[in-house]
Amino acid sequence: MTTPIEQIPENIRERREFVFLFLAGFFLCSMTLLNVIGITRFVQLGPMQLAVGVLPYPLTFLCTDLVCELFGKKRANQMVTVGLVLNFFILGMLTLGNMVPAVDPSAQPPWQNIQLASDLALPNGSVAKGSIELFGLIYATTSGAVFASMLAYVAAQYIDVRLFHFWKRVTHGKHLWVRNNFSTMMSQMVDSIMVVSVTFGATFLRGDMALGLLLTLILNNYLFKFFAAALDTPLIYLCVWKLKPWLQIDQEPAAKAASI
Predict the structure, then answer these.
(1) Is 161 domain-assigned?
(2) Who contacts 139 (Cβ-Cβ below 8 Å, separation ≥6)?
(3) How many domains does the chain have?
(4) 171 vs 168: CA distance, rounded Å
């Protein structure tokens, strides 16, 4: 049986609170980094070409799986829901900043505006000529990515939580590597297809991006996340092995494990 929360010693409750806050903070930080740096730069990682915002994103699935394993499905869904609210907040602040009138350009510092040598096609479909305000450039390169990540986030993160517990039931709570890898790898496929398709969909429909390039971005995006999911398996085993005794979490199904 699960120990009632009122019977759990205060120091153990504090440990569980700290670990949950740490994992949730890491989850939200990684998700925010994805939205902030987004597609501002593409990097070459071996044979893969990736948007720089993708680099921290696999950590969100590691955090989700650890919360699932240690604290159960309810707490994992709570963390994902908070992340969704923050996505709306980020998009709202970007939109508000774009809507509020800027001061007279002559009164702005020189570095607020970037002089362009030629016309610049922006990811949101507009074309900058002559010069562009720094915020306008940031908004053009991040707002679409934030919207795309919101859609992908809703689908992928909730799917990850559900699949994690599905595989846990199928394996009767054994073989942590199965639920960690299969839940993440399947949900990452959904995420990769959605986030690239929505981010670059308008560019593709305008004819500025070939279908081959779009598919290559999806494939590169997924391969990076696939290998990241495989590589984090020893880490999740180590964390679970160290944290369960320290947090005094029963070796029963995580859905029944004592929550914070």
Answers:
(1) yes
(2) 94, 97, 98, 124
(3) 1
(4) 5
Report the run of H or E that residue 192 belongs to, with start and end.
Answer: helix 176-205
Tell me, yes or no, whether 103 lies in a domain: no
The verdict on residue 106 lying in a domain is: no
Asked if the model's pLDDT at residue 18 lies above 60, the reply is yes
Rounded to whole angstroms, how far apart are CA atoms 217 and 49? 7
Let me know if residue 107 belongs to a domain. no
CA nearest to 94, candidates 152, 47, 55, 36: 36
Q: How confident is the model at residue 58 (pLDDT cuts 50, 70, 90)?
A: confident
Are 220 and 50 in contact by the 8 Å Cβ rule? The answer is: yes
Per-residue model confidence (pLDDT) at position 164:
87
Look up the domain containing 39 and give its range. 5-98+112-256
Tell me how far CA of residue 91 lies from CA of 60, 125, 144, 150, 199, in angstroms: 19, 18, 9, 9, 14
